[in-house]
Amino acid sequence: MEHRIEKIKKQLHSHSYKLTPQREATVRVLLEREDDHLSAEDVYLLVKEKSPEIGLATVYRTLELLSELKIVDKINFGDGVSRYDLRKEGAKHFHHHLVCIECGSVEEIENDLLGEVEQIVENDWGFEVKDHRLTFHGICRQCQAAAIEEDVQKATP
Amino acid sequence: MEHRIEKIKKQLHSHSYKLTPQREATVRVLLEREDDHLSAEDVYLLVKEKSPEIGLATVYRTLELLSELKIVDKINFGDGVSRYDLRKEGAKHFHHHLVCIECGSVEEIENDLLGEVEQIVENDWGFEVKDHRLTFHGICRQCQAAAIEEDVQKATP
DNA sequence: ATATTAGTTTGTAATGATTATTATTAATAA
DNA sequence: TTATTAATAATAATCATTACAAACTAATAT
């Protein structure tokens, strides 16, 4: 934990930004809830628990800054809210999402699914790929199970 | 053109919705500007040229309806605006985007890049894939050329 | 120590996209 | 024709996000 904070502090410094108490509090929340795909509002409320004097605009600015420095990914599942994910240490951008269209759950998967696909894009379209966003929409395991359950119920009334 | 409108009309009817004049005008705009990734506002302004009495809320409702019926794809490039693309006839969901981080241009590519990747997701995560969104962020051909141009300028002042 | 400066934060106002509401109109059924 | 329902227009309301002005902080120069 402290180690990662230290690292982020250095990243900020190398761009002549400072790790102010507000920024540190924000980063700590992101670290604690690493897999949660928090919205700015979520982050704000969580930071407020420990640092009640922080302002919403500060949280937005901090998240924007972290996103510019590629410390967090700003992602969008199409529900009108941006979500912010701390990049995992060592992780490249092999970071995809499974969004369930039944229950709305979001699972995160980590796998280099697109290595050769990026090659194809570079070769066939002359587009220099820096990053990608890949989201699958479908039915999660739980909802599949629930659907089968329901069918059984109907069959044996 | 008329053929596709007729088809959409049937799709609406099969869900007991009607192809009202306003809805038809909206669909016509989407057909005319098929590759343009229009925002709701864009669509509204274009529809207004031919049907000045239409309301913005109607356009929103129509686009939402078409999106629910999978006649259009509602997509989001993270710039705070939803964009609406008519699904191409016969096209499956092999429909990806190349977003340039320099000039902001969006190119659309059509290619089944993810056939086997979807298989992997289904097998390894038990997630039943219905659809996906794949966006590449990087430098388009034009901006690459421009960058090289600039370097030449610097080298020979 | 004091003044200066740049960077940061706060609280709030403003903006822009989208959604909800309400009254009206058109289409359909009885 | 009358009653019912669906769809629309105009506008108000909402929600996420950004802009702004004033106050504050920390570092640096005097």
From TrEMBL, chains A, B:
InterPro entries: FUR (IPR002481), Fur_C (IPR043135), WH-like_DNA-bd_sf (IPR036388), WH_DNA-bd_sf (IPR036390). Keywords: DNA-binding, Repressor, Transcription, Transcription regulation, Zinc. It comes from the Bacteria. Gene3D superfamilies: 3.30.1490.190, Winged helix-like DNA-binding domain superfamily/Winged helix DNA-binding domain. Belongs to the Fur family. This is Ferric uptake regulation protein. It comes from Oceanobacillus neutriphilus. The gene is fur.
